[in-house]
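FYI - complex with 1,3-dihydroxyacetonephosphate, inputs then prediction.
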Amino acid sequence: MTTIALVAHDQKKDALVAWAKSHEDALAGHKLYATGTTGGRLQAETSLDVTPLKSGPLGGDAQLGAMIAEGKLKVLVFFIDPLSAMPHDVDVKSLIRLAILYDTLLAVNEETATAVMKGLPAT
Ligand SMILES: O=C(CO)COP(=O)(O)O
C-alpha cells in the first residue's frame, strides 16, 4: 500500500474528481490523504476512503510538506491551476520544493497522474 495525497486548486477540482473516479479501483488499494476542500469533494463524489487535512490555504499544503519531510508520503497528485494567483503561493511552492527535495512522485497534471498510477504496485 502506497500513501498518496490528492490535491487540486479550485479551477482544477472538477478535473481531479473526474480523474479519481476513473482511477477509483486503482486508488482504492492505497492510503489516501487530501487537502480539506479537495478531500470533501472526493468523499462526496467517489467511494474512496480519503483522510482530509486542513484546507490548502489554511495549512493543508504545509501539512503535506511535513509528511514528505518525515518520509510519510510517497505520491503527490497535485492538479495545479496555472492561470490563477494564489494567496498561499508560498505554501504551494514549499510543497513542490519538498516533493522535489525528497524525490516524491509528483504529478501536476492528468497524464502524469495516470502514468504514475500505472507504475505503482496495485496495493
Ligand atoms: O489550495 C490547495 C492547494 O494549494 C487545495 O486546498 P483545498 O483542497 O482545501 O482547496
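The pocket of 1,3-dihydroxyacetonephosphate is lined by residues 7, 9, 35-38, 55-57, 60-61, 92 (CB under 6 Å). The first strand starts at residue 3 and ends at 8.
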